[in-house]
Amino acid sequence: MAYTFKIQRFNPDKDKRAHYEEYKVELEQTDRVLDGLNEIKWRQDGTLTYRRSCAHGVCGSDAMRINGRNRLACKVLIKDLPEKITIEPMLGFTVIKDLVVDLEPFFEKYRSIVPYLVNDDPPGETERLQSPEDRAKYDDGTKCILCAACTTSCPPFWANKEFVGPAAIVNAHRFIFDTRDQGADERLAVLNTRNGVWRCRTVFNCTDACPRDIEITRAIEDVKRTLLYGKQ
Ligand code: FES
Residue 98 pairs with which residues in a beta bridge? Predict the structure, then answer.
C-alpha cells in the first residue's frame, strides 16, 4: 500500500529554516515507521538524517514526532497510521539536521541527578541483598531507555529549558528508592531547586509519551511527596 511521508527537513549547511518534503513509499501493513524512513533513505534520498540503531524499541535512539506525538519510529506499526504520515523532530532541543536533535542538554540534566548507585560501605562477602518488595519500589524506572520522548513532550520543559525534566526525575527516583543506595539526599537536593521537580504541573504528557509505559507522573509525585514528608 502507498503511504506519503511528509518529513521536516533541515540542513544547516544550506537551509535558513526547516521545511517539509514529501516521499511516496510502498509498505506492508506489518512494517513500522522506521522501515518507511529506511526505504526513503536507502532508495530515494540518502541525505535524509535520523538516529536509529536496535530497531526493536531498546536503544531509544529513534524517538521523533509521528503525526504530532512523540513515538519510537521502530515501534509504530504502519497499519495503525493514516496514509499520510507527518514526521518531525522532537520539540525543545536544537535541530542538528532533519530529525536529529542535540541531546547534550538532556544528558546534562540526566547526569545532574547522579544516575548510578552510591554506596560507600566496604563490599561484603556476598552481593547486597534486597527483598522483592524493596526491588518493586523502583522497578518501573529501570525500564527507561533515555529516548527523551517524555521530556520533549512536557509543556513546563518547553517553557523553561532549565527544568530538569521528567526523564531525569524518573532516573533519580530509580536510585532514591533503592534500599542499597546512599545518595538520595544529594539527588533530592538537586530536585528541590528552582528548576527541579516543582516545575512539574502534572500534565501527564510524559506518561502518555513513554514508549516503555513507565508511570512517570506517578514517579514524579513520589519524589515530591518524599521532599515534603520524607521517605515513606
Ligand atoms: S531504533 Fe532502538 S529504540 Fe528504535
Answer: none
Model-level pTM? 0.95
Site of grid cell 518547553: 158
* Positive or negative: CA dihedral 82, 84, 87, 88: negative
The C-alpha angle with vertex 176 and arms to 118 and 202, in degrees rounded to 5, equals 145
Residue with cell 507527518: 86
C-alpha of residue 206 to centroid of ligand 1, in Å: 18
Ligand 1 atom nearest residue 211's Cα? 3
Q: Is 57 a pocket residue for ligand 1 (Cβ < 6 Å)?
A: yes
Task: Render pLDDT for 116-128 as a digit per residue (tens, 0 to 9).
Answer: 999 999 988 998 8
In whole angstroms, give the CA distance from residue 3 to residue 1. 7
Residues paired with 97 in a beta bridge:
100
Residue to mutate, 62, 71, 90, 143, ligand 1, most ligand atoms under 8 Å from C-beta? 62
What would the pLDDT profile of 80-105 be if each residue is shown by its tens digit? 999 999 999 999 999 999 999 999 99
Q: Which three cell numbers stand for residue 8?
A: 521536516
